[in-house]
Every structure is written in structure tokens, then in C-alpha cells.
């Protein structure tokens, strides 16, 4: 049992004691009055069905995680892990059940409750984790992790809804309506080690990892441009743009459709030779410079280098890495297995941008961290020249985790 909260509310000449228990598995509410003792639980119904779901499906919904009682004696209860779950495809053919969450209205003279949440809830919203209700029944309920889809990226600033008629209708509260998407441009190139030691099977894992990272950035327009370079051997006395094993597999911005980009990644074949990392960094500079917005201060430039071993040209590595950074390109280095950590630090120029995993199957573990780091960097860079996005660091902190109005005064006027 995590905590127990007691509240006493007067109703005429009677007092009703509401006790809300939240356990580690399933929350529940108990009404203790002078006349009876009730176990109050939600009547959970599927939106497309009229039948009540089974007790098994109701488990772990955290019914009672948040709650408020108004003057009419109606209890509003949050259930952020509400069992009406939607199957979502992730990572190939595997599926994951993601809770939408919901809130319920419970009458003091009945033992069951009914859902009153907004109709546009999505998997992963966890709606009902935070709520406030005034004495007259005006409600402000927040979804702390609701994802906002913006041109160029996906991010989760949270989302708050307001209802003035006890949950019959909902609308975004004014502060939520004022949230605008960040305006930034991002040129992002993956630089992949194509040496023999990687192997064909692991190279497929690298491509799957790269697609997972790229999926976080919407490329259905020109805001975010993605490119891929594979490197292995380097021939002396041959220009960089003519090297047969330092190849631009996907030119920066070549595909503006995400599905087309993924298909192009699948077609990349492993070189299977050596590891000239320093020269590969110099080659990638040419790809960045091919963009007409290379010198634009509003365009963030990011390079993600992945390698599984020691470079064949270490004597040039520090010079090449410094050259890349001097052009305003920020490098993230990813090392697998026996990759040399000192070299990874030289490449990134900052230990915070170094990621290491023990084997290729563990690459999935760093996808989310890398996505977040790149997005935060891009937003931070954009904020230097655009005052309208200075607040996005706060929004990325998921503002919906706590409502910003107390239950005593929700005074926001609707526009």
C-alpha cells in the first residue's frame, strides 16, 4: 500500500467520509457513511461495445490515483492506466498495449461510475493523472505525456482539457491552445562503420536501429533532412568524393517521405573492409556542405557516428573531429563492443554525447536517449534566434504532470 488519504465532506446534517486507497496494483474507493459502506468501482465500457469489461481487464488501472469532490456530492476520479487499451505496432511485428487513461464521475448514492473523458484520447496519454475540480464542477484535467505532432519532430509537452459542464463537453484550456510547435530546421547525417568486423547480421541490426532513431523525426516536409554515409577503406591519392568505400548511401534530404527513406535504408549493403574513421568525418563534411542551408544559423547540423572498433587513421582523428565541430556540426558518437572510448570522446568532443553498448543487440536501449538529446539540441539551437521557442524546455518537461490552477480558483477565461 503506497498511501491512504482521508477526506470529510458535509452533506446537509450528515458527514460522508471518503477514503481513497492507492495500492501498487489496483486502486479503489470506499465510501463510509452513517447508513452504509460501499465499494465504489468504475463501470468500464468499451467505446464500441455496450458490455461491461471483465474484472481482469480492469486490473492495474490505478482507479483513484487522483480525485476531487464537488458541492453536489459528485466525485471525479482519475484512472491514468484505464484498461481500455489500444494495440499499437512497434518495432516490426511486435505489439504493445498502451493505456489511454480516463476520468470517471461517481455519484454518492450509487456504487458505480461512468467515464467522462474527452473523445480524442490516444494510446499513451495516461489521462487522469492530474485533475482539479472547483465547487461548481468546473474541471481542469491534464494528460502529462500526450504527444504533440509538429513539423520536424514529435515531442510531449502535455495537454490540459477544461470542462464547465461536469465532463459533458471538453476543450483544450487556453494555455494549451496557445502552445505552438517549435520552428527549427535540422540536417542529420548517420555515419556508419561498414568494416568487416561488423558483419552482415549486425549491419542489419544497425540499419534497424538507425530507422528507429530516424522515426522520431518526421520527414514528410523539408524541415528535417536525413542522410546516410557508409565508410570503411580509404585509398591514398584519391579525392574524397571519388572514394569507392566512403559512400553517400542516402543524400541529405533525398527522401522527404518516411516510408521511402526506410526502404532506401533497407537496400544498403555492407562494405566489409577497414575503418578509416578520420577520413570518413572529412567525407561527411562534404555532404553537409552540399545543402544550400549549410550556412544558415537557423539550421542545426547533427552527425551520428557509429563504429565497433579502432580507427585505422588515429593520427588524424583529433584534427578531423575538430574540423567538423569548427563548422558548426555537432557530433554524437555511438560505440559498440570493442569501440575505443577515447576515440569516441575525441569524435564527440563531449562525454555527454558519447553512447556505448556491449553488443549490437543492445542498440535499441539507447534509441530514446539519443532521440531526446538530438531534439533538445535542435530546440536549444533554434531558441538562440527565435524567442518564441524559448519556453520549449519547460514544455519538454511535460507540464501536464501538475495542473497550474488550484481547486479553489480555476479562473482562466475561455477565448
TrEMBL record:
<dbReference type="InterPro" id="IPR002035">
    <property type="entry name" value="VWF_A"/>
</dbReference>
<dbReference type="InterPro" id="IPR036465">
    <property type="entry name" value="vWFA_dom_sf"/>
</dbReference>
<dbReference type="Pfam" id="PF00092">
    <property type="entry name" value="VWA"/>
</dbReference>
<keyword id="KW-0732">Signal</keyword>
<protein>
    <recommendedName>
        <fullName>VWFA domain-containing protein</fullName>
    </recommendedName>
</protein>
<feature type="domain" description="VWFA">
    <location>
        <begin position="187"/>
        <end position="370"/>
    </location>
</feature>
<feature type="signal peptide">
    <location>
        <begin position="1"/>
        <end position="27"/>
    </location>
</feature>
<dbReference type="InterPro" id="IPR050525">
    <property type="entry name" value="ECM_Assembly_Org"/>
</dbReference>
